Every structure is written in C-alpha cells, then in structure tokens.
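We include the pair:
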Amino acid sequence: MVNDLFDRIQKNKGPLGKWASQAEGYYVFPKLEGPLSNRMMFHGKEVINWSINDYLGLSNHPEVRKVDAEAAAEYGAAYPMGARMMSGHTTVHEQLQDELAAFVQKEAAYLLNFGYQGMVSIIDALVTKNDVIVYDVDSHACIIDGVRLHMGKRFTYKHNDIESFEKNLERATKMAETTGGGILVITEGVFGMRGQQGKLKEIVALKEKYNFRLLVDDAHGFGTLGATGAGAGEEQGCQDGIDVYFSTFAKSMASIGAFVAADKDIIDYLKYNLRSQMFAKSLPMIFTKGALKRLDLLRTQPELKAKLWENVDALQNGLKDRGFNIGDTNTCVTPVYLEGSIPEAMVMVNDLRENYNIFLSIVVYPVIPKGIILLRMIPTATHTMEDIQETLSAYEAIREKLENGTYKRIAAETTVDVSNA
C-alpha cells in the first residue's frame, strides 16, 4: 500500500508548526510596520525593536535611500535580466565585486543573489564525494543544508571546541587519505544565536599541522568586527588564513544579496560552478548600486560602527550588572538565558510586547534545550540610551514575574492565543 504523502504532513506539522494556532501572527510571522528603525509599530502601538539585523542603521540612512531611489528610477526592478553567465552581467557588478574583495582583503569576489542559497551552493561546488567536511555542530541552517548535499563523509565537532575539532580533523585526515580527497572545514565568524565568535585563529593555527581549507560564514561579523569592519578574521588577526570568505548583505548592509571572496583562481572556479547563480537571475541593479553606497559608508563613516558598539556595551554591561546570563557573547548579538517552559515564554513575551512595549525574538526548544528560554536582542546604531534603559527596567520586571511563578500561573490558567489580536 502506498500512503498519501500529505497524511503525515497534515497529522504532524513539526515541532514549531504545532504551535501555529497560538503563535502565528504574533510570536511567529509578526507584522512590524513603519520605517525600519529602533522603534516601530506592532499591533497599533510603538515598540522598541530589538529584532532586526540592521546593525549600522543603514536601512534608512538618507544617502542610502537616495541611491536606492535613483537606481530604481533609472533601471527599474528588473535590470539586468537573465543569469550572470547569459545576459545579467554589468560593469557595476564587477565594480562591486572588486571593492568587496579589497575590503575583506582577498584577491577576488563574486556576487550572490541570496546568502542562504549562496552558501548551500558554495559547499556543493567546493567538494566532491571523495572530499571530507568538518563543521561546527552549531552552524547556521544554510551550512547544514549545504552539507546535506555532500555525497561524501562529514564530521561535526562540538561547538567552538578546539579539542573536539582537532579530534575530528584527525578522523577526516584518515578518511581523506583513504578516499584520495581533501578536507573542507566550515565555521561561522559569528554564531548568530549565541553571539560568540568562531575560534578562527585557533583553527587557522592548525593548518601548520593538518592539510585543510577553511570556509567561513561571516554574516554577523562583516561590518561589525575588525578595525575596518572586515569581520571576525580581521578582528582575530587571521584573515589571511580564511581560504573562502562569505557574507550576506542582509545584516550590516541592510539589503539583499551576498558575496564570496577568495583567491582569484577559486573565484574563477566558483563563477562557473555555483548552480544557485548559474541558473538564477542576476542581482538587480537596485541592490547592486545600493550595495556600493552601503559599502562606501562602511569604509568612510566609522562612527556608525562606533555608535553600534557604544550601544552594545551599554546593553550588555547593563544586563550583566543586573545579574542576567548573556552567555559568553563577544559580538553585537545579545542573548539572555532564562529558565522556563514554552508556555511561560509565550506569556512573558506577550507581557514584554503589550505592557512594556519591547519587541524581541524568542527562541525555545527545539532550537535550544528544553527548559531554557532565550531572548535574543540585536542592538543597532539607531538605538538610544533611553531605549536601553527602558529595556533593562523591563527585564528586571519580567524576571521577577518569572521567578515568582506569575507566568507559570497565567500559562496554566489560560491559553495565550493572540493569533487574531
């Protein structure tokens, strides 16, 4: 008997989907409205927004908005049409690639339409079935999905654990000697959930002992870390040891698109083998010209990054001074770890949004272990000290309610259903 494919889907919506009736439209798929900024509108009221990755506040920077508008007026939304290899290539794309490569201290770069698809395709293009992948167990979903395409062997190592990394590197070395392949190591410059930098310097140092190539996803590090903003590798003084550097425009650049940078011969290879780009439309001129302006501001207005870090330090130090657990983040990503159930977390976030006008992201099981609530905040250059003080006061209030059982009692007495609120 052949089962109906949809039977399973209709009966089991998955670990997150099962909460859809209570969560959709409020906890997930919420509608933030108004200009992208530190304060936006949610369900008809103004909230302090800690849930967008506009690190440098470029989304509504007047120079950026001007260039975006001019590009839209000149080119429309479609130009250039077609994939890069066929008809979607321009001198502006080349200019942006050259400037990105210089900024991250690599020989060459190649533009990608989207970060997620780009990373999946980069991994697919770099390895064959004879090669071995070694990657951090906490890697972003785009890395996980890229590894899933790999037909050969792969090993995970414990998160940011160099002892575990070397142990798995030894296993990979033995395997590669058997298959006749090479080794690709993948990690992140900044882990977007916990906020730690990947241990790039320690990984690069092991190149003296083992033969491998290193691919780094630096989505959250690009523009926020390093003396010039070139990312986690620059911050740790090991940018030269990163063989393939990747970042997206969806964070510090406040746009759409991504890029990969490496030695010229590697980029030349990827240009002809990245399936996500070979068979997809070219990045439209609106985003290409807009990215040039954003990159220019990264280079010429260091005060944006300075303001970002002033806010990061004020928020994170304020939380630590009040006894909150923010883990060992050493980046802008600011997680706050609390103990509680998913229903308690839902009541808490509802309280934060409705009574304290604080909007942030909530992370629970299965993304993190059961019994833990992670409230994740992304400080930006547009936040103010008033925003930070209001948020710190709200955190003290919700912690008291969590610890005295208020949220547990409310969760037991009622189902928090705000999907139609």
Observations:
- The first helix runs from residue 5 to 11.
